[in-house]
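Tutorial handout. Part one gives the primary structure; part two gives the three-dimensional structure as tokens.
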Amino acid sequence: MAAGKKAKNIGKDAKGKVKETTGKALGNESLEAKGRAEQAVADAKQAGQKAKDAMKH
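Part two.
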């Protein structure tokens, strides 16, 4: 996996976790849901990159 893309996906995952935690703390369901969605997108992209890397080898 390209290091830059991996770092970007990890950053998006962390950002999603922060949003989810903040949403829980504030009782903001919308922010919490957005955080979970960002994490899901980052996880999907990371899985796609891993699959690409597996096909290269």
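Part three, for discussion. The chain has two helices and no strands. Residues 13 and 40 are 8 Å apart (CA to CA).
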